[in-house]
Specification:
With 268 residues, this protein is of the alpha/beta class. It contains 13 helices and eight strands. It has one domain.
Length: 268
């Protein structure tokens, strides 16, 4: 992992040097290398727990407020991401150069175990968001919910404020990831003084949208959260706890959304 918006591990070997490396202190570089990554079919996965992920996001916001770093991208990778990244080079590059890449799907967790470099646990966007909200409430960070169907972000925001009393919601907006709306959305985030932007446009649109606008996003952190707003709002029903614990949430989602099978298969 790292704390610069366009970076990979070659930055420290001289093979690649991001123009944003100058924003990183030696302390930040040491921290970036303290949690090694592994790769699943060419897609990076950082070996982090949920708590470590939230701590890292907290540090990003703190350093951004001090003027040390630009906006950082956080990606939650599941097997569908990997399959898409195999045939979509810009998407693969976007993932591999993100500040944090966590294992969203159990398939990713199993793959890292098989490779002998296991990630400690599954870190989903839906699990991460409430924990990030609690940290925001404790630190006074402002959270912006962007994406999903009209009205869904507002309901999700209210739910997060129940989960994390004192949480400051900087704003909500459905919008879309189309180029024509980018300037307006960036201005909304700037006017809202958002510290963290959670983007729910679905993959790969949300990741590519963040990556494309990373240099001008006013927030400290931008996280692609997929269907997290739908689950928080009750628009979608999550798998029972037992199925999540044994790694079968994907099967429950397939049962609820049969058309997802096409997205779960590798495509040439």
């Amino acid at each position: 992992m790292c704390f610069c918006p366009i970076w990979n591990r070659k930055s420290f070997t001289g093979n690649y040097l991001s123009p944003y490396v100058k924003y990183m202190s030696l302390e930040m570089i040491d921290e970036a290398l303290s949690h090694p990554s592994t790769y699943v079919l060419g897609v990076r996965v950082d070996r982090l727990t949920l708590q470590q992920t939230v701590d890292a996001i907290d540090q990003m916001v703190a350093r951004h407020r001090e003027g040390e770093v630009l906006c950082q991208q956080v990606v939650t990778v599941n097997p569908e991401f990997v399959m898409e990244a195999r045939r979509n080079a810009p998407f693969r590059e976007c993932i591999n150069q993100a500040a944090l890449v966590v294992a969203d799907g159990m398939g990713i967790v199993w793959a890292t175990r098989f490779a002998g470099k296991p990630t400690p646990e599954r870190v989903t966007g839906t699990d991460m968001l409430p924990e990030v909200a609690r940290r925001c409430a404790a630190k006074g960070y402002r959270l912006y919910l962007l994406g999903a169907a009209p009205g869904v972000a507002e309901v999700a925001a209210a739910r997060l404020q129940e989960i994390a009393p004192g949480l400051q919601i900087a704003g909500t907006y459905a919008g879309s990831p189309v180029l024509a709306e980018e300037d307006e959305i960036i201005e909304r985030l700037r006017a809202a003084s958002a510290d963290i932007a959670c983007v729910a446009y679905g993959a790969p649109a949300q990741e590519l949208w963040i990556y494309r606008n990373l240099a001008r996003l006013p927030a400290a952190v931008a996280i692609g959260v997929g269907g997290a707003f739908d689950f928080l709002s009750g628009r979608q029903v999550r798998a029972p706890g037992l199925m999540r614990q044994i790694g079968l949430e994907w099967l429950y989602r397939l049962y609820r959304e049969p058309r997802r099978w096409r997205r779960m298969l590798a495509k040439k």
